[in-house]
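It is worth pausing here to work through a concrete case rather than discussing structure prediction in the abstract. The textbook approach is simple: state the sequence, then state the predicted structure, then interpret. We follow exactly that order.
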Amino acid sequence: MTTQVIFLPKKPLVRDDKFQWKLGGKQKTAKFRSFYRGEFFGEPYWAISGGTGNFDDESYFAFSMTLLYQSDEALTGVYNLSDGLTFGHSHWIPAPPGFTGMATVDADSATLSIKYDPETDIATGSFEAVFKSHRYRLNPKGTFTMTRLRPPEAD
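Step two, the predicted structure:
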């Protein structure tokens, strides 16, 4: 079992970021995306995500990846699930009245190739995943160029 923390930005946080994927022959560009270093129960991690749609019109669809944080310099590389990469897909589902529904599934296999420049805070990379368990049949292949989000400096 895995736990994933997902923050859903209400608008693009960095306008020049790109997070795109192909499913079958269709190219999609994320309307919201984020790249940051977070912490969950004292464990630092890297998070990369992007998606489209929203819950109001029942069109939410997203992909997210996490890696354990070692250092800024150590992020560049190629990662698979066996290296600690997590890769999830989330989407809107029907829910009982008064609720919003979302399903999240882990990839059966995934690869992330990333290059991060700690001086500019820009990460570029590509990803591929296979979702075939639980009746899913997805094989997204994508690329991204994203600027690391950092908390505001304390005065």
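Step three, interpretation. The radius of gyration is 15 Å. The chain has no helices and eleven strands.
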